[in-house]
Request: fold
Amino acid sequence: MMQKVLVTGGAGFVGFHLCKKLLSLGKQVFCLDNLYTGSQDNIAEFQGDKNFEFIEHDICNPIFLEVDEIYNLACPASPVHYQRSPIATTKTCTVGVLNMLELAKKAGAKLLQASTSEVYGNPFVHPQPESYWGNVNPVGIRSCYDEGKRCAETFIMDYHRQYDLPIKIVRIFNTYGPKMLPDDGRVISNFIVQALKNDPLTIYGDGIQTRSFQFVDDLVDGMIKMMEQDHFIGPVNLGNPDEFTIEELAREVLKLIPESTSKIVYKDLPEDDPLQRKPDISLAQKELNWKPQIKLEQGLKNTIEYFRQKI
Ligand code: NAD
Ligand code: UDP
Reply:
């Protein structure tokens, strides 16, 4: 029988790519989203597909569906957007996750949670292995997301221990690609859109902070491998370990858009902005036989092409 898969946050950036891949694998996909940062436009190409159904719904309200698997992606991921309505963000990560766990329990479904490298906060350990407990400010402007996602992991592990619920936790590191919103606010979409519009590239702080950027196709492959693996529940890091300073990223974007007349400007570093981030992916390599395939230059070229058409 055809497998029924629920993707919450399916009308967002990663959700779109995951729905597309699941449909191509012959699954029946229910895409649930409250359209906070997602859009109907993103999923327009699936609307005629008999194996695709869109459900407008907020996971903070209970719902019942007969499904076999749940990918729980619902939650804004860009600091600009998760800080726009911080209480809703914490509620989505807690009340929303509880509703998805109850749904999984009633439906007898497996649940995979999209967690984040933000559970490591501003890390003292570098690169970050899953065994690191992190350094997170519980009362700062990022806490609605960081602490929300940490609490989500706690709920999920306790549903597993208390009810034997089949669960999976992936900790996603900075991911980019086509279908990010031009006003998403994260660094790669900001720099590309700024360069294409000949606006200044805005580096926050001195640009020596680092991130490790993963192309979205690599992430989707890792998530599906994780869901399909039988015994390993994680948490597991999914990210590209190639680490760049934000200054290096800005220069790379300008190199790949040679016609741009943009300059670089420096703005204040936001509060609690992590100084460095790089995943230790040895666990994903061992348990999932997974590692990212797409280098930053190639991924940026694909993403630039998308934004060229979009803008
Ligand atoms: P996104 O903001 O593009 O997508 C999130 C989607 O969730 C949107 O469509 C939004 O409308 C929806 N949503 C938000 N709150 C909801 C709610 N209460 N009920 C129903 N839908 C809701 O972000 P993304 O980059 O696609 O991230 C997807 C998931 O992956 C998120 O859970 C995020 O925390 C996680 N993640 C992403 C990254 C990354 O770099 N992209 C890194 C770490 C973790
Ligand atoms: N950043 C920047 N300019 C921008 C947007 C972000 O310099 O226009 C910086 C931001 O301060 C952070 C890094 O880029 O140090 C990554 O930011 P993003 O919001 O993409 O992700 P996160 O901070 O959640 O890793």
Observations:
- Residues 8-9, 11-15, 33-38, 58-60, 73-77, 92, 96, 114, 116, 172, 174-175 surround nicotinamide-adenine-dinucleotide (ligand 1) (CB under 6 Å).
- The radius of gyration is 19 Å.
- The first strand starts at residue 4 and ends at 8.
